[in-house]
Design brief:
By secondary structure, this protein is mainly β. It has a domain at 279-390. The chain is built from two helices and 28 strands. It has a four-stranded antiparallel beta sheet. It is globular.
């Protein structure tokens, strides 16, 4: 067989094009693999963690430096629980009085009131940075609650200050002095930050005793300009704020009423404030507001607490006074409920109860339909908040 020069050139060209295609395909495959980042950022972790994660902030007891973060696995795999994962991962304690914890992107942010600082963690609870507020005269009152939006963490402080903190660098970029005193809960809706102005403590000049003055303010701060837009009038001693389905819900600790007062702020109706009933704690998820009204009879010894569970359908704006729990353990009806939260992934409802300084708290888990899943030790005192990754 005689192969001409032209035939040889054509065969070589086909081989070259085939090899080029293979190289190009490999480059595309490698490029895609390089862009395929891990789901979670577990850099520096001493523990191999499953994909499904719940972190619980245990407040601890004031001045005892025993705040902690526990890990719970709601899904498959091991470990199922790590009592103080913050200590295990970072070799030190979280601090005094864990106040607030949020998830933002692939990070966890924790405000520690007694130690007056905020820490940034990755998805394995490994510390990435922290910022102390103790040396700033305007922030020495102590950090309280935090919320995140557009690359910033917004923090309320005792002393009337709201701080704007860069979520990446943790630099305090701006501070807003409000007309308030001790600021509590915060919530963000439609580029506005809602801040509860709770109370102030003064000293009676005649008796020398502490005197408490309770306020009726929720400040609305424009996040685009970081200025105070307006002040809403609410029930006195506003405290807890959460946002769900374009509404802001508030609980005021009005000690002159029969229980704490639940209210709804509607940003689409010029921030109209509507009283919905009574609740001492709440959690939002599944287009619902899950509520508990805890009332304690102090006239008997030992004290007796009675918990009444209900729910509010945010879409239909209907309050359902029937308990959203189906087969809750009997002890939950009289336990001291410290927190409630809902997993945004599964819709499961978690209720944390406290034994105060006597022992660790207990977490009760329910499915979205209210059926009981189980309970477990929180690994620390006074469960305050939780975040989820899945």
């Amino acid at each position: 067989m005689i192969i001409t020069l032209s035939t040889l050139i054509m065969k070589m060209r086909k081989i070259y094009l085939a090899m080029a295609a293979v190289v190009a395909f490999g480059s595309v495959f490698t490029s895609c693999s390089d862009d395929d980042e891990p789901k979670w950022n577990d850099e520096g972790s001493e523990i191999t963690l499953p994909e499904s994660r719940m972190y619980i902030l245990n407040e601890g007891s004031m001045s005892q430096n025993n705040a902690s973060i526990s890990f719970y696995n709601p899904g498959e795999g091991e470990p199922k629980f790590v009592a103080d994962i913050f200590f295990d991962q970072n070799g030190g304690r979280l601090g005094d009085t864990g106040q607030s914890m949020i998830k933002y992107g692939k990070n966890i942010y924790v405000a520690v009131y007694g130690s007056n600082y905020m820490v940034k963690l990755n998805t394995a609870c490994v510390k990435e940075g922290e910022v102390s507020f103790s040396k700033d005269p305007e922030l020495q009152g102590g950090v309280r609650y935090i919320a995140a939006e557009d690359g910033y963490i917004y923090a309320s402080f005792y002393g009337g200050i709201v701080a704007k903190i860069n979520a990446s660098t943790l630099d305090v970029e701006k501070k807003l002095k409000t007309p308030g005193a001790n600021l509590e809960g915060v919530a963000i809706e439609n580029d506005y930050l809602y801040v509860a102005n709770s109370y102030e403590r003064t000293t009676d000049p005649e008796t020398g005793k502490n005197k408490y003055n309770y306020f009726k303010d929720v400040f609305v701060i424009d996040l685009n300009t970081f200025t105070l837009k307006e002040t809403l009038v609410v029930e006195q001693n506003p405290n807890m704020l959460i946002e769900e389905d374009d509404k802001v819900f508030l609980i005021s600790w009005n000690y002159s009423r029969e229980s704490y007062v639940l209210q709804m702020i509607d940003p689409d109706a010029n921030n109209k404030v509507t009283e919905l009933g009574y609740a001492t704690n709440m959690a939002a998820g599944n287009d619902m507001l899950y509520l508990v009204d805890s009332r304690t009879d102090y006239s008997v010894r030992p004290y007796v607490t009675t918990n009444t569970f209900s729910s509010y359908d945010i879409k239909s704006r209907r309050l359902n006074t029937t308990s959203f729990l189906k087969d809750a353990p009997a002890e939950l009806a009289t336990s001291s409920i410290y927190m409630m939260t809902v997993s945004e992934y599964t819709g499961d409802i978690y209720i944390g109860v406290t034994n105060y300084s006597a022992s660790n708290g207990t977490m009760y888990r329910f499915k979205q339909d209210g059926s009981f899943v189980g309970k477990f030790d929180c690994g620390g005192q006074n469960p305050r908040a939780a975040v989820f990754f899945n």
